[in-house]
Amino acid sequence: MGISRKLFTPGPVAIEKHILALGAQQPVYNRTQEFSQFTREIVEGLGYVFQTSGETAVLTGSGTAAMEAAVLNFLDKSDRVLIINGGTFGQRWCDLCRTHSINYSEFKVKVGEDVDPDLLAQMLLQAKFTALLINAHETSSGQLYDIETIGKMARKSGLLFVVDAVSSICADRFLMDDWHVDVAILSSHKALALPPGLAFVAMSTRAQSLLKSRAPETLYFNLQNYLINQQRGQSPYTPAIGIYLQLHQRLRDIRQETIEAIVGQHHERAVQFRNSIADLGFDTLPACPSNALTAVVCKNNNAFEIVQILRDDFLIDVAPSGGDMKHIIFRVSHMGAIKNQDADLLISALRQIVM
Predict the structure, then answer these.
(1) Domain coordinates of the chain in residue numbers?
(2) Strand stretches in 147-205, DSSP E
(3) For residue 247, what is the DSSP state?
């Protein structure tokens, strides 16, 4: 565990040293006026990241915790939900709705393929849905969906549009308000480039109105309670204070650098990596990939063996795939504090393995 490794995994990701240093500080007492001001600055910074004028609840938990909070606060047994399911994390929406007895239907998409807008429009006409749930980026395949187009369709149909943007925000362009997203979800350990432990639920004005009309069957994930407490700069329960310190600085860094520049850096890293492996006998999976990661398709090698060799022989961690894709696909993240020399080391290692 003490060995220095290069991380090319889609969470956790490599973190800048000045951000890591903040996590080593003694956590402060949070029930103070100073911490309240600190929290208000965080919430304001998150609005910039989501590109929304709405409110954002800050939870101590994983991205899945935020997904579950969305289900528990905005949906109930009277709803009929349509879920875009193109992989592991589309399936997670289904699992959450089934667990909480929410009536749902699936719009199935083959792994690595895009949503056909004409077929989606037909399905929206066939049944009266109340909400549409999707992952902006299906992290298991690398597929980036056209949230702007789908958001227009959702708004035209009068649907609550809920988007898991956990592995997309800061890596890809995401305009919550302009794209008619009602609820958007993010976690700390993807392109936000922080340690795991915080999750965020951003809500449009429309979603906040709906929130007030629902009685969530949850104590810890009661989003209305978070919003009420955040008005005074606090959270209803003890937050992950150390990560708050890191988040505060990270949001300041993003504002100074601009979200557009950070997305551009992810795009540049992704394109450079894909071009660099083109002659190594690999394909990449989706036709419309996210900047967050590349799903590498092995034509002549065993993907899982490559993952193990990189880890054992080169001290480089990439992400394996599961299920039927285990021996066919591995995933390389472009998120976090990745330097050009780090990417060069990975490409050199892949060249040694396959050539």
Answers:
(1) 6-12+258-354, 17-257
(2) 160-164, 183-187, 198-203
(3) H
Tell me what the pLDDT averaged over the chain comes to. 96
Nearest to 165 by CA among 135, 140, 195: 135
CATH topology of domain 17-257: Aspartate Aminotransferase; domain 2 (3.40.640)
* Helix orientation angle between 303-314 and 340-354, rounded to the nearest 10 degrees: 120
Residue 157: CB atoms within 10 A of its CB come to 16
Q: Which fold has domain 6-12+258-354?
A: Aspartate Aminotransferase, domain 1 (3.90.1150)
The secondary element (H helix, E strand) that includes residue 332 is: strand 329-333
Residues 265-292 have pLDDT tens digits of 999 999 999 999 999 999 999 989 999 9
Q: Whole-structure pTM over 0.85, yes or no?
A: yes
Mean pLDDT along residues 57-85: 97
- What is the gyration radius of the CA atoms in the chain, in angstroms? 20
Cβ atoms 318, 243 nearer than 8 A: no
> How far apart are the C-alpha atoms of 105 and 113, rounded to whole Å?
19
pLDDT in tens, 158-192: 999 999 999 999 999 999 999 999 999 999 999 99
User: Of 59, 71, 115, 123, which is closest to residue 97 (Cα–Cα)?
Assistant: 71
pLDDT at residue 355, as a whole number: 85
